[in-house]
Amino acid sequence: MKILHIETSSKNCSVAISDGENLLCLCEEVSDNYKQSESLHCFVEWALEGAEISLKDLDAISLGKGPGSYTGLRIGAASAKGFCYGLKLPLIAVNSLDSMVEEFVNQGFELIIPLIDARRMEVYTAIFDGKSGEMISETEAKILDETSFSELTYKKVLFIGDGAKKAQEIFNLPNAEFKFDIYPSAKGLIKKSVEKFDQKDFENVAYFEPFYLKDFQGVKKADRIKKT
């Protein structure tokens, strides 16, 4: 079972190839400039070369469906759907927050909480069990303040993601640890994708949309009045 995994919901443009749960190749780069449109298809080509397979050898396409960057998600979804249409392959979608937690499961934390930076003091987040790695709260967009997660004061919690930096500055959680340089990654999609493939839990390619979580908010420029 060979799967191409695409994750573009954050600053990390990430592509992986797996055979079952075995990672064959990973190509990814974190950039503040969000280089998905420039890098994604190059990374797919390099990952296939590194795994020594071709597109015709693939059995499915896996996508980190969000939440995250609106533009990044659009780019990833368009590419994934294009591969599915062209190669007649099933599409598997996995919550991007899931892709962040696997390496920290069974590392002594009661809870693992990804925090993806949205804007200002807002983050995308959910709570995962530290032993099983299963999501135990719904994904949400949350505005952080001094009282956020205060009910977890006495629990050993790990906050991960680029939103964890601003969280550490305002939280008063003595048992919490923070890791800032963790991003959604294609390699973190593998386990869930294999489970979904085995269960034939596929998306409808024609109607699939990324998990934006909230509406896109563009910047409205002030109207300019031309004086005559």
UniProtKB/TrEMBL annotation:
Residues 37-182 form the Gcp-like domain. InterPro entries: ATPase_NBD (IPR043129), Gcp-like_dom (IPR000905), T6A_TsaB (IPR022496). This is tRNA threonylcarbamoyladenosine biosynthesis protein TsaB. It comes from Epilithonimonas pallida.
